[in-house]
Specification:
This protein is mainly alpha-helical. The chain has 4 helices and 2 strands; from the N terminus they run αββααα. It is elongated, with a radius of gyration of 22 Å.
Length: 109
């Protein structure tokens, strides 16, 4: 025999509020508005941007003179990835990449 509170618990777990976001609403990062499905390319670009930006940060802290160029390349790769898989959510990231590029170019002697 079911207890009323157990049924209510099951109903509460199944209920989805009106206007709730689902996985279908999330940006598809492996899909390009320009090139179609490019998941392997997006993975390569994301790893490349990460590695180059980490190297840029380490070389900046170490005082190596070529760190601005590494920042420009890393932020450029990151911006390319966001443009290829564009969604309005990426606008903040594109702004951060632009700021990094400007900062690095201003640091070049």
């Amino acid at each position: 025999m079911r207890t009323p509170d157990r049924c209510a618990h099951v109903r509460r777990r199944r209920a989805r509020p009106t206007g709730a976001r689902t996985a279908d609403d999330a940006p598809r990062v492996g899909h390009s508005w320009l090139l179609g499905e490019i998941r392997p390319l997006t993975i390569v670009l994301a790893v490349a941007a990460t590695v180059v930006l980490v190297v840029a940060g380490v070389t900046h802290l170490a005082g190596v003179g070529w760190w601005p160029w590494a920042v420009v390349v890393g932020a450029g790769v990151s911006a390319l990835l966001m443009v290829l898989t564009f969604t309005p959510w990426w606008l903040i990231g594109l702004g951060m990449d632009a700021a990094l590029i400007v900062w690095a170019l201003r640091a070049i002697d």
